[in-house]
Design goal:
By secondary structure, the chain is α+β, with helices and mostly antiparallel strands. 29% of the residues lie in helices and 25% in strands. A six-stranded antiparallel β-sheet has the order 1-6-2-3-4-5. A hairpin with a 6-residue loop joins strand 3 and strand 4. It is elongated.
Length: 129
């Protein structure tokens, strides 16, 4: 993929990066990254218009490939043809950055154990154990 224009971002996250694809392959890859991103992106169109929102779908195999974006300014999903996209900026906060399944499971297990201890204390206080 083309090199990001802005490197001021958390390592490993595309947050804050702006990419101008140099080929169709780079565009397809960029749209995939935008779809997988857990934050808003800003799509710059060949007309100069910029649309900020959440990428909800894409289809690189359609007769006219497109991405669908839920814009911040409006309830309607917009379908943007790939051939109108000149750049994508990962403009919103990367809400999934640094989080993993293992961290979630560890936190969940800690909460479960704390709840079990609380229930046991209450049962002992009531004379049930």
């Amino acid at each position: 993929m083309a090199e990001p224009c802005d490197q001021a971002t958390p390592a490993g996250s595309p947050e804050g990066r702006s990419v101008r694809p140099q080929s169709r392959e780079e565009l397809v890859e960029l749209v995939e990254h935008a779809f997988d991103y857990r934050g808003d992106v800003t799509v710059e169109l060949s007309s100069g218009r910029k649309i900020e929102g959440y990428v909800s779908n894409r289809d690189a195999r359609a007769a006219r490939p497109f991405l669908e974006i839920i814009p911040q300014q409006g309830p309607e999903t917009l379908q943007i043809p790939f051939d109108e996209i000149v750049a994508v900026t990962f403009s919103g906060e990367d809400t999934a950055f640094g989080k993993s399944w293992h961290e979630w499971m560890s936190k969940h297990e800690s909460q479960r154990l704390a709840e079990a201890e609380r229930v046991e204390r209450e049962a002992r206080a009531r004379g049930l154990l």
